[in-house]
Design a protein that fits this description.
Chain lengths: ~160, ~675
C-alpha cells in the first residue's frame, strides 16, 4: 500500500519536474513547447541530464521556476535573470549548455574540458536524439542522413528560418 | 572447398573485385571472392542486408565525429586507417630517411597509429579506406569524372610525372561500361572540359540518367562567377562552372541506349550492347524500389541511407541474381556452362605463394570467426588466375609480404592522393546549405592547360554542406555560440538569440575546395616491417609521404583563385590555416613564406603502377604483373597518374579492362 502510494508520488513529482524542465528548456533553446514536445525526446533528455548531473538539476529547475514566477517570461528583465542566475552561474552553466545541446544536437559535451574539443568530449546519446536535433530545421535543413527532404529539394530556394 | 581450383581467385570485394566477379562469372567462369571484412556486410538476402545496413546507419547517427569510416566496423582482424589519429602525428620527431630505417627506434616514428597506419614521412598521409564488403566506395562521395586526354600523356605534354602506356581513347570504351555499371547521372552537353575535343564522349553519347539537380547555392555561384575573368600568375582565365556527373540515381535518360557489358568470345572483347529496354535505376540491395532517386539525405559521405548512391554491393548482388536466374532457367547439361561466384568473408589474404617459374601457385588466407580476436585458421585458395583487388595499399602490402613482383623495387612506391585545399567564408545571404549531395557543380577551368608546365592541375568542386569539412560545422558553431566565442561582444548565447545567430550563420556558410594533382613521387610509398603487424599477424602499412614543390605550387594557385572568387562574390573569407594542424605546410608566395593546410581526399592510388616496360612499372597495360603471368593487380594502384578526377570511375573502367584481359587469357 505504502509502496504503491510512494510510486504514485514519484510519478507525480517526475511529471511536475518534467514540466519545469520543459519551461526551462523553452527559455534556454528559444523553441516553444510544441517544438520541444514534437521531438519526442523530452523524457529521454530529462533522464539523461539528471543521470549526468543529479541533484543540481533539481536546484536548477527550481531556480528557473523562481525566475518564471517572479518575472514571467515576457518581462524585460527575464532574459537577464536567466543569463545571470543560470548561464553565468558556475554550477548551472554547464548543465544549461548541455540542456541546449541535447535539444539542438542530441549530444552531450563536457564543457569543463579546457580544450574546445568538438567531438572528443561529446557523445550522441542515441540515434533518435541525433535525428531529432532542432539545430537542423532551424537553419532550413534536416539532420544529415535523416529526415530527407526528397529528390531535387536542394535545388529549391531554402525555407526561411521561422521564429516567432 | 580448398581442393577446388577456380578459374579466378579475386582478393577484395570492393568495386574492382565486384566488377571482375560480375564480368567473369557472366562469361561462364568460376570465381572465388575473398573478402577481409565481416560476413554480415556481404549478406545479400533482403532481411539480413537491411539489418546490417541499419546497423551501419545507427553507428553513424551516434558517432561523435562523422568521418568517412564512422559507420563501418573497424576490425582488429582487418583494421582500417583512422583519420582521427592524424592529430597525434608528431612533427617534432625527425623524418626518418629511407636508408636509416628500420634501425631507428620505434618511438621516433612520427605516427604509430595504434590500430593501423605507421607514418614516418614529412607530412601525415591524411586519407583512409574501408575494409568492409563493398569497399571504400561505401563512403565515396559519388563523383564520376573521366580523366582528361592529357592526363595520360603528362610527361610528353608538360614534362612532369609520367605517361600511361595507354591513352584516353584506349580506356574510353571501359569508361562507358563503368558509367553503365555505376549508373551515372549527368549532362554530357554541359561537360565543357579543357583539352578535349568532340570525340571525348563521342557522337550521341549520353549518361544513363539525367543530371542530378544542382544545388540552390550552385545557382547563386553560377550567377555571380560564371564567365568572369580572373588572373592567376599574370594569366587571365574565364571561369566556367558545370554540373558534376555523379554515381547516384536520378531520372532515367530515355536516350541512353546500352545494356550491360557482354563478353564477345569470338573477338575476345568486352562490349556494351544496345539494350532493348530503357535504363532502370538500381535501388538498394534489400529492396529494388528503395533508393530509386537521390532523396537528399546530405550524408553521401559517409553513408547513403537509401543506397540511391552506387556502392559495389549492388554489382555483386546483380551478378549473383543473374547467375541464379540463369540456373533456374536452364536444365540438364546446360548448367555446366553457367559461371559461379563463391564469396568467403572474414578471410584475409596473407601470402601469395609463387612457383619457381614465377607463376602464382596459391593464395594463403587467414579466416577468422571473432573480428575482435586473434584466432584464425590458415586456408588456401587456388585458381588458374589470381586478381588482387584489395585496395592500392592492401595490394602493395600483400605483394611485399609475399616477395612478389621483385623485378624492380616499385611495389608500394608512387603512392598518390589529391591534396585538397579548402576555402570557406560567409555569403551575404542565405544560400540554403547543408542540403543535397556533397557537391553538385565544379569549376573545370584548371584541370588542364599550359600552366601544368609550372604547377599541378586541380579541379574546384563547390561544396553543399557549409563548413562541415573545414570547421566541423555545425557542431563547432554551436559550441562556440553557447561559449561566447566569436559571437557579438562574446556573448554566451541562448534562447531566441542563439536560434537567430545559428540560423543566420549556418545558412550563409560556403565552402569550396581544390583537389590538386599529386605526381607519382618515387619516395612516397607504402612498405612493411616485421615490428608492425595486426592481430592476425598480417602487416600494417608503413607510410612515407610528402608533397612535391610542383603540387605545393598548384595548391598555392588554387588558394589564390579562391581568394579572387570570394572577392567576386562578396564572400567574407573565413579561411584559416592553423599552424598547429599536423598537415600544415609552408610555401614561398611573392617572396615570403605562407602557410597552408592540406587534406586527404581518400583517393589513394599508384602503388603498383602500369607501364610500358618491366623496369619502371609493376604491371603491363593489361594490368598483368610483369613477373607473374597469372597475376593481375586491379584497382587505383595500377594508375600511373591521378589527374584531377576522383579515381573511382577510372578504377571501375580499369576493372572492366582487366576482366577482358583475364577472359582473353582463359579462352
Amino acid at each position: 500500500m505504502n509502496e504503491a502510494l510512494s510510486r504514485k508520488k514519484d510519478e507525480e513529482i517526475s511529471d511536475y519536474l518534467l514540466e519545469q524542465f520543459l519551461n526551462l528548456s523553452r527559455a534556454l533553446t528559444g523553441f516553444d513547447r510544441v517544438d520541444l514536445l514534437g521531438t519526442g525526446m523530452a523524457e529521454p533528455y530529462y533522464r539523461e541530464i539528471t543521470r549526468i548531473y543529479k541533484e543540481p538539476v533539481i536546484r536548477l529547475l527550481f531556480e528557473a521556476k523562481a525566475i518564471f514566477e517572479v518575472y514571467g517570461e515576457h518581462h524585460p528583465a527575464f532574459e537577464d535573470q536567466i543569463r545571470q542566475r543560470i548561464i553565468e552561474d558556475i554550477e548551472f552553466a554547464q548543465i544549461a549548455k548541455n540542456i541546449i545541446q541535447l535539444w539542438y544536437l542530441g549530444s552531450y559535451t563536457n564543457y569543463n574540458d579546457p580544450a574546445p574539443l568538438i567531438f572528443k568530449a561529446a557523445y550522441i546519446i542515441s540515434p533518435e536524439a541525433y535525428q531529432n536535433g532542432l539545430l537542423w530545421p532551424n537553419m532550413g535543413s534536416h539532420p544529415a542522413g535523416a529526415k530527407q527532404p526528397g529528390f531535387g529539394s536542394w535545388n529549391l530556394e531554402p525555407q526561411t528560418v521561422k521564429q516567432d | 572447398m580448398t581442393d577446388k581450383i577456380y578459374d579466378v581467385v579475386i582478393v577484395g570485394a570492393g568495386v574492382a573485385g565486384a566488377v571482375l566477379a560480375k564480368v567473369l562469372s557472366g562469361a561462364g567462369k568460376s570465381v572465388l571472392l575473398l573478402e577481409a571484412g565481416k560476413q554480415a556486410g556481404i549478406e545479400l538476402e533482403a532481411v539480413a542486408a537491411y539489418a546490417n545496413y541499419q546497423s551501419y546507419l545507427n553507428t553513424f547517427y551516434t558517432a561523435s565525429a562523422k568521418v568517412p569510416n564512422s559507420p563501418y566496423p573497424n576490425l582488429k582482424t582487418a583494421p582500417s586507417p583512422d583519420v582521427l589519429a592524424l592529430s597525434n602525428f608528431d612533427v617534432q620527431k625527425p623524418v626518418i630517411e629511407q636508408d636509416d630505417w628500420p634501425k631507428k627506434d620505434d618511438s621516433k616514428l612520427r605516427l604509430n597509429q595504434g590500430s593501423y597506419f605507421v607514418q614516418k614521412g614529412n607530412l601525415p598521409f591524411g586519407s583512409d579506406y574501408a575494409r568492409s564488403p563493398g569497399g571504400t566506395m561505401l563512403h565515396w562521395l559519388g563523383t564520376t569524372l573521366r580523366m582528361l586526354p592529357n592526363d595520360f600523356r603528362l610527361k610528353t605534354t608538360y614534362g612532369h610525372g609520367e605517361d600511361w602506356p595507354i591513352s584516353y581513347e584506349d580506356l574510353k570504351p571501359y569508361y562507358e561500361m563503368a558509367e553503365r555499371e555505376i549508373g551515372v547521372s549527368g549532362a554530357v552537353d554541359e561537360q565543357e572540359l579543357p583539352g578535349i575535343d568532340s570525340n571525348f564522349f563521342g557522337a550521341d553519347y549520353q549518361y544513363p540518367m539525367q543530371k542530378i539537380p544542382q544545388s540552390y547555392l550552385d545557382g547563386k555561384f553560377v550567377e555571380q562567377a560564371k564567365g568572369k575573368t580572373i588572373k592567376v600568375n599574370g594569366v587571365a582565365y574565364q571561369l566556367n562552372v558545370i554540373s558534376t556527373p555523379q554515381g547516384r540515381n536520378s531520372t532515367p535518360n530515355k536516350n541512353y541506349k546500352f545494356s550491360a557489358a557482354q563478353w564477345d568470345a569470338r573477338q575476345k572483347k568486352l562490349k556494351l550492347v544496345p539494350g532493348e529496354e530503357s535504363y532502370q535505376p538500381v535501388g538498394s540491395i534489400w529492396d529494388p524500389h528503395t533508393g530509386q532517386r537521390c532523396e537528399g539525405n546530405a550524408s553521401c559521405v559517409p553513408i547513403c541511407p537509401v543506397q540511391a548512391k552506387y556502392n559495389p554491393l549492388k554489382t555483386i548482388k546483380s551478378a549473383v541474381d543473374k547467375l541464379k536466374e540463369l540456373s533456374d532457367n536452364t536444365t540438364g547439361g546446360g548448367k555446366s556452362s553457367i559461371g559461379s561466384i563463391e564469396i568467403i568473408a572474414q578471410a584475409v589474404a596473407s601470402k601469395i605463394e609463387i612457383e619457381p617459374d614465377g607463376r602464382i601457385k596459391e593464395i594463403k588466407y587467414k579466416q577468422y570467426k571473432n573480428p575482435d580476436g586473434s584466432d584464425y585458421v590458415l586456408k588456401t585458395a587456388r585458381g588458374r588466375i589470381y586478381a588482387l583487388a584489395a585496395h592500392s595499399v592492401e595490394n602493395a602490402k600483400l605483394l611485399l609480404a609475399s616477395g612478389a613482383c621483385k623485378g624492380n623495387d616499385h611495389v608500394g612506391r608512387h603512392l598518390m592522393d589529391h591534396t585538397c585545399g579548402l576555402a570557406w567564408g560567409l555569403m551575404p545571404k542565405d544560400i540554403g546549405g547543408y542540403r543535397g549531395p556533397g557537391s553538385t557543380s565544379n569549376i573545370p577551368t584548371f584541370r588542364d592547360g599550359a600552366f601544368r608546365k609550372e604547377h599541378s592541375a586541380f579541379i574546384m568542386p563547390i561544396d553543399n554542406w557549409g563548413w562541415n569539412w573545414p570547421a566541423l560545422s555545425p557542431f563547432s558553431d554551436f559550441i562556440n555560440a553557447v561559449n561566447g566565442q566569436g559571437t557579438p561582444q562574446n556573448e554566451q548565447l541562448f534562447g531566441k538569440k542563439l536560434r537567430g545567430y545559428l540560423g543566420d550563420r549556418l545558412s550563409r556558410q560556403f565552402n569550396m575546395h581544390f583537389e590538386v594533382e599529386q605526381m607519382p613521387d618515387y619516395n612516397n610509398r607504402v612498405t612493411i616491417h616485421p615490428r608492425f603487424t595486426d592481430a592476425l599477424g598480417n602487416f600494417r602499412p608503413v607510410i612515407t609521404y610528402d608533397l612535391s614543390d610542383y603540387s605545393r605550387a598548384g595548391f598555392v594557385a588554387g588558394r589564390q583563385i579562391t581568394k579572387e572568387i570570394f572577392k567576386l562574390m562578396s564572400v567574407e573569407d573565413a579561411t584559416n590555416y592553423d599552424p598547429g594542424n599536423t598537415s600544415y605546410f609552408t610555401y614561398e608566395v611573392d617572396g615570403k613564406e605562407e602557410g597552408f593546410v592540406t587534406n586527404g581526399a581518400g583517393h589513394l592510388a599508384g602503388t603498383h603502377r602500369m607501364g610500358k616496360s618491366a623496369t619502371d612499372s609493376v604491371v603491363n597495360s593489361r594490368q598483368q604483373a610483369w613477373d607473374h603471368k597469372n597475376l593481375y593487380l586491379v584497382g587505383c594502384g595500377s594508375m600511373v597518374t591521378i589527374g584531377t578526377s576522383n579515381p573511382s570511375l577510372t578504377m571501375t573502367a580499369l576493372a572492366f579492362s582487366a576482366a577482358e584481359s583475364i577472359l582473353s587469357d582463359l579462352s
